[in-house]
Amino acid sequence: MADRISGDPPLVFTLVKLALFTVLVPGTVTVWLPLFILYPMIRHQAIEWNATAAGAILVITIGVSGYLWTALDFAIYGKGTPAPIDMPKVLVVHGLYRFTRNPMYISVLCVLLGESLLFYSKALLGYAAIVTVGFNIFVLIQEEPTLRRKMGPAYENYCNEVPRWIPKIPR
């Protein structure tokens, strides 16, 4: 009820928007495009289940878990979604955001790296490199300037304390 009084939409609507965004954007980046890249290989070759595959599954699991954790933080605490058109209204600075400003992107990259390892795919590794560059350009050109404008000094302080990409254990 408090959400409705303050003008924020009910959490269930935010969660539905989050689910749609997740299927459309990270789902495309981590599932549909990799399947397109891998299709010629995977229809003729089975996964070799060994220690490398186990490590790959672990990296993918870490990536999926990190994405879900941060996306839910956006919905519950930030009152928004990862979609640029529905950004959080409140700056999220806890959870994985204490260690790096971009744990959601890092999580998606973990999924891609795990997939490239699982399928021994240089093509998928190259795709992950392209996605990494794309994420960095998007963060520098669109995301950070928008957050500086919308969140003001709180975001500036956050940027001074938390690194953009390489996680750091807070003091």
Over all CA atoms, what is the radius of gyration?
A: 18 Å
The portion of residues forming beta strands comes to under 5%
Count every helix, treating DSSP H or I runs of 4 or more residues as helices: 7
Helix content: 55-70%
Q: Which regions are unreliable across 5 or more consecutive residues at pLDDT < 50?
A: 1-5
Q: What characteristic shape results from the CA principal axes?
A: globular
Number of domains: 1
Query: Biggest β-sheet, characterized?
Result: none
CA(first)-CA(last) distance: 37 Å
Number of DSSP E strands = 0
- Overall average residue pLDDT: 91
Order of helices and strands: HHHHHHH
Helix and strand composition category: mainly alpha
Gist of the model:
By secondary structure, this protein is an all-alpha fold. The chain is built from seven helices and no strands.
Question: What are the key terms here?
Answer:
171 residues; mainly alpha; 7 helices; globular
Q: What layout of secondary structure does this protein have?
A:
Elements: H1 2-6, H2 11-24, H3 26-42, H4 51-76, H5 103-118, H6 122-151, H7 153-161
Helix pairs in contact: 2-4, 3-5, 3-6, 4-5, 5-6
Descriptive overview:
By secondary structure, the chain is mainly alpha-helical. It has one domain (14-161). It contains 7 helices and no strands. It has helices at residues 2-6, 11-24, 26-42, 51-76, 103-118, 122-151, 153-161. Helix 5 (103-118) packs antiparallel against helix 6 (122-151). The longest helix has 30 residues, at 122-151. The model is unreliable at 1-5 (pLDDT under 50).
